[in-house]
Automatic annotation (TrEMBL):
It is a multi-pass membrane protein. It comes from freshwater metagenome. It is found in: Cell membrane. GO terms for cellular component: plasma membrane. This is Unannotated protein. Its main location: membrane. InterPro entries: ABC_transp_permease.
């Protein structure tokens, strides 16, 4: 009996291990890709691996993409999409800039205001999708263009300066609470930890996975899916608002024409990190790895002095590979595609 029990135990452990590998394959693959890409650029240009470039170049550029990608992760896990995160970031930055100047707000009030505005913009996306029954792609495409136009209108086509007029605003991203580590990176790490707790330890996180896995079954179980979807899109907007604050601190200004294109990098980071486009699967840690891959790739191409038009081509190819990889993972897992 003991031999039979041991065999059963080993078989069960082997099954759990295989399930773990299938579940974590996207994140492990992304981490391995990050190491390979980083090693390649280091060999090509040793200065690439210097702490000055890693902290001031790679990690700093990861912060904005990473914060937006964290929010997008929740949305994609539900089976949705948000194309508006880039231009919404620009709109939040402009609104915050105008309000901070007009009301003479301090740094902390400005940060809080940015996150509130971002959350409201995200909630609008959720309402368009749940109340008006618009497909997420169409709804967020419309708000993407709307946010782009409003940012230009509100700013009167001019950048809004922060550095000289708001004391301490530059320290939000560029200060150093921890020596040699920019505050923006610390903000990203804290945001990632909080987002991971929300996704894995709260009711919102459980319903996020449930909606993405089977929306109809979740409705039948008594969950008010529409309310939770609005909450998910509002949470995405919250992180977009935080990204806007970090961006304005990095640049010292709110640039109304900035933001278009960031949504693709954020979505690519999420998919590269192992989140499934069909929903029901994803991790925050995988998303951060994906954001690092995007930043390492862009930074490395610039150090190699590759022409910008070719940089776009390479980034586009990476996005294609990320989506293709997601399809392969789903087929291997026995999922069906439409």
């Amino acid at each position: 009996m003991s031999d039979v029990a041991n065999k059963a135990t080993k078989s069960e452990e082997a099954g759990k291990f295989k399930a773990f590998v299938k579940r974590e394959i996207g994140r492990v693959t992304a981490l391995a890709s990050l190491v390979v890409i980083f090693t390649f650029f280091t060999i090509m240009r040793p200065v690439f691996a210097s702490w000055a470039n890693v902290s001031g170049g790679i990690l700093m550029s990861t912060t904005v993409i990473g914060l937006m990608a964290i929010g997008v992760t929740f949305v994609i896990i539900t089976g949705g999409i948000d194309l508006s995160v880039g231009t919404s970031m620009a709109l939040v930055a402009v609104i915050v800039g105008k309000t901070v100047m007009a009301a003479n707000l301090n740094v902390w009030s400005g940060i809080l205001f940015g996150m509130v505005v971002g959350s409201l913009l995200g909630a609008i996306n959720g309402i368009l999708i749940t109340v008006l029954k618009l497909p997420p792609f169409i709804a967020t495409l419309a708000t993407m263009k709307g946010a782009q136009g409003l940012a230009l209108i509100i700013s009167d086509l001019k950048p809004i300066l922060f550095t000289t007029d708001v004391k301490g605003w530059d320290s939000i991203a560029q200060g150093n609470i921890i020596p040699n580590l920019p505050n923006a990176v610390l903000i990203l790490l804290v945001a990632a930890v909080i987002a991971s707790i929300i996704l894995n330890k709260t009711v919102l996180g459980r319903y996020t996975f449930a909606i993405g896995s089977n929306t109809e079954a979740t409705k039948l179980s008594g969950v008010k899916v529409n309310r939770w979807l609005i909450a998910v899109y509002a949470l995405c907007g919250f992180f977009v608002g935080l990204a806007a604050v970090v961006m304005t601190s990095r640049l010292g200004s709110a640039q109304p024409d900035l933001g278009l294109g960031y949504e693709l990098e954020a979505i690519a980071a999420v998919i590269i990190g192992g989140t499934s486009l069909l929903g029901g699967k994803g991790t925050i840690s995988g998303t951060i790895i994906g954001a690092l891959i995007m930043s390492v790739l862009i930074n490395g191409l610039r150090i190699l002095e590759l022409q910008q038009e070719w940089q776009y081509v390479v980034v586009g190819a990476v996005i294609l590979l990320a989506v293709y990889g997601d399809n392969v993972r789903r087929r291997r897992a026995g999922e069906t595609t439409n």
